[in-house]
Design a protein that fits this description.
Keywords: Glycerol metabolism, RNA-binding, Transcription, Transcription regulation. Regulates expression of the glpD operon. In the presence of glycerol 3-phosphate (G3P) causes antitermination of transcription of glpD at the inverted repeat of the leader region to enhance its transcription. Binds and stabilizes glpD leader mRNA. This is Glycerol uptake operon antiterminator regulatory protein. InterPro entries: Aldolase_TIM, GlpP. It holds the Pfam family G3P_antiterm. This protein is α/β, with parallel strands linked by helices. It has a single domain, classed as TIM Barrel, CATH 3.20.20.70. It has 8 helices and 10 strands. An 8-stranded parallel beta barrel has the order 1-2-4-6-7-8-9-10, surrounded by 7 helices. Strands 3-5 form a two-stranded parallel sheet. Helix 7 links the parallel strand 9 and strand 10. It is globular, with a radius of gyration of 15 Å.
């Protein structure tokens, strides 16, 4: 499974999700979701031929563990799962969906810890946050030898383009204006 679009629209609200459904984008991310919305989001995405990547850590009402990942995979057939948790990433890989390991660029210690985890777990993609540091996107991509998504704090087309030039495969953003500009 490969992501072949430069913007991954990330929905936080149902209004943003509906905007995504009307867009030309095939793959989207749902960030902040209540467990009671999963069935509706799944049905709407399926009806519009959209593929969803769910951020397991941000689904309210579900613990962000391998059991939640297994439940989501069985019941809602996601295109992929995003998490900071290695057991969620492992379950996504086991279930044959795209696994996206979130990596927060906080400090050198956190960076090294993330590198060790990525080396051990081998996710399909890494999401680097914030995605506004092209030099870090280059470093992470070279170090982990995995495709990288850039997300967080990207607010302009210049920042989108800088992240892509630095080697990001795609940009995750909830800024609908950027979705529309890039579409």
């Amino acid at each position: 499974m490969i992501v072949k679009q430069y913007i991954l629209p990330a929905s936080v609200t149902m209004k943003e999700f509906e905007h995504f459904l009307k867009s030309k984008y095939e793959i989207g991310v749902f960030l902040d979701l209540h467990i009671s919305q999963l069935k509706n989001v799944y049905s709407m995405a399926k009806a519009h031929n959209k593929k969803m990547i769910y951020h397991v850590d941000l689904i309210q009402g579900l613990k962000n563990d391998e059991y939640a990942a297994e439940y989501i995979c069985q019941e809602y057939k996601p295109y992929g799962l995003i998490s900071t948790k290695s057991n969620v990433i492992q379950k996504a890989k086991q279930k044959g969906v795209i696994s996206v390991q979130r990596m927060f660029l906080i400090d050198s210690h956190a960076l090294e810890k993330s590198y060790r985890l990525i080396d051990k777990i081998q996710p399909d993609y890494i999401e680097v946050l914030p995605g506004t540091m092209p030099w870090m996107i280059e470093e992470v991509k070279a170090r982990v030898n995995r495709p990288v998504f850039a997300g967080g704090l990207i607010r302009s087309m210049d920042e989108v383009n800088n992240a892509l030039k630095a080697g990001a495969e795609a940009i995750t953003t909830s800024d609908t204006k950027l979705w529309d500009q890039f579409e």
